[in-house]
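Teaching assistant's notes for section 4

Start the section by putting this record on the projector. Ask students to predict, before seeing the second block, whether Sterol desaturase family protein will look compact or extended. Collect guesses on the board.
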Amino acid sequence: MEFLETLYHEIINFLGISQAWEILSTKNYDALKTYNGIVSLISPIIPLLIILELILGFIYKKPQTKVYKVNFIIYIFNRFIGRFISIAMVAFCIGLFQSYAPFQTSLTWYWFIYGYIIWEFGHFIYHYLAHKVRILWCLHSTHHAPEDMNLSVTHAHFFLEAPYADTIRTTVCILAGLQPELLFIIMFIDGTYGAFIHVGENLLKDGRLGFLNRIILTPSHHRVHHAKNPLYMDTNFCNLLNIWDKALGTYQNEMDDIKIEYGITRQMESGNFFDVYFGEITALLKDVYKAPGLKNKLYYLFMPPGWSHTGDHKTARIVRKTYLQRSRLISDHIKS
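Reveal the predicted structure now:
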């Protein structure tokens, strides 16, 4: 009975319906006018869409069961070992850095816009480093391992990634003067939208969202980010506002003639939890062990994935640059 009760509570927590159910059962509808009440209504949307997406997968005979299975195991694993670490790091950063901010914002619409732009900059920094520093890529690669895209990919993270990400994002925002209350509102909105952009084709065939594709980062942009195609590698690091990708040269639209190939470039068994979760760490340790000299061992830790002490580099930057050069040559040859 204790096991069934634990399972029941885990399902309720996953669905995020406990607060909404309490409001409905007590008929305390005034609570819906508060921040917590609004959160209680929005929180179940993504989990329920995951279930709908899975059902549609079976209807369309594209269930992606391997991806759902591994991501579910990752979700359960992370629940037990990393439940409170990220929250603790956010609180620690607020307490440590708030006194150093040159000014403080308030809960107004213009500070909200300012705050979101700053938050997106912090997100860009974390996300960019997660792709460009190999030891950080080991934490982030779990999220890129699935070879199909669906909403369950939202839960595919190494348990230490959220504390690392929130440390950078929170530090940037607090030093830029964001009040904690404003920061928490932005974090909730961004977290909800950040989950939605992982929606798969079973639920949303065209992820461009019409004219919004020119204004914000859409599921189409994020599908590009999860691709291992040379053109798409290491692009679209933002979450909602693509302002920093456009400003810093990492913006890339989905091309109709280039079908997205999901996953990572390392040969791996995507249906194996241990390979998905620990595979990049194992590969890094092997490279460090084999590398000659302390300098090369440190380089393997902090240089981009694909760096090699032999000089045969296969980083995303080099692979993409080579692809673009070849594409230009072919285009020039056709024109001539």
